């Protein structure tokens, strides 16, 4: 690279850094601006758009960093158990990188990709009221769902026309997937499974939003329809599970009539969607079955996992393509985490996921926790890819914050419902007061004041 080009690149980076700093300063007074910008980068900027600074940096990562900085409030930053889990997991990965057990790209993906998104979710869940955050997410994914329907009708994804950014990332994510001769809708998420999983996680926020009932119902139908149009079994199944959990668990602020209407719409939508999805899967023939069988074969990689660091089966060719044994693609988050970072990290996260599901059952109910639990089964068949990775860890951070707020609020609610302290019997005030007889205008209060005055002057 010539010196002139280097100067131009440095100037552009300085200008970008200045704009990001200004963005953070403005967002500190207007937190919803930071949230809105993050949702725009999440939902409408493809994963291949970004800047290569030795490591590929996307606008979504920058948006998460701005949210973390702008919404951080030290007085509200109370450590929660899962915060310590994240510190432990990311610390193990960072140490493994220093010792040479994990390559830079994988270490960056976890420490920065997971960590910044998690912190952004933590501060957003604490600094933004739940209803406002849910409503912003509902609006963003409502627009995403409309665009997905348009993409299905027109058979054209406009985001694939955006070629700026990383050529290698575009080559990987900028192609149209097809199943049974029908395009699978991807939106700006680069992959139909990433879109389907993201829609599933958005559903509980739509349910808990402050939208008018009719608009909320329409948005729920749109999100469910978009999930079906991904023709991803993971996306469809997790979205259905999210709706079921919302109907059963998230009853606050939602009337019984709305729940009945939602269930009715879901049943009608299912009757319409099942023939469409079944036709596509039947036309795909053995494709879907082969995909499921492939994921089953990934279990054979378990013995190659190390306790700490990358698996012994990992290899990388001169073109930068990574493989594990005979597998070029690992479509399972737990298996990929174990292969990249070791069994210790995998077990810690697996136990944490199980405890999160237990917490939901025990009553720590929030839209974010419902979203995380709804998508957990799907993680066994999809890796952390494109924006889905950032979205997942952002929602995990929000879930930790919202669950902590519920726990804090419970003692206050219990105190408000507890019986008031016993009032003194009126007879106690009716007894003759010897001091009142000699002190003009004497009373109990007057007597106490007189006693205090005498004690201070003696």
UniProtKB/TrEMBL annotation:
| Protein known as | Uncharacterized protein
Does the keyword Disulfide bond feature in the UniProt annotation?
Answer: no
- Transmembrane segments in this chain: where? 6-25, 32-49, 55-72, 84-104, 133-154, 219-250, 257-277, 341-361, 368-385, 391-409
Residue ranges for the region (Disordered) are: 418-458
**UniProt KW keywords:** Membrane, Transmembrane, Transmembrane helix
Q: Where is composition skewed (Basic and acidic residues) in this entry?
A: 422-431, 446-458
- Is-annotated flag, keyword Zinc? no
Species annotation: Cellulomonas alba
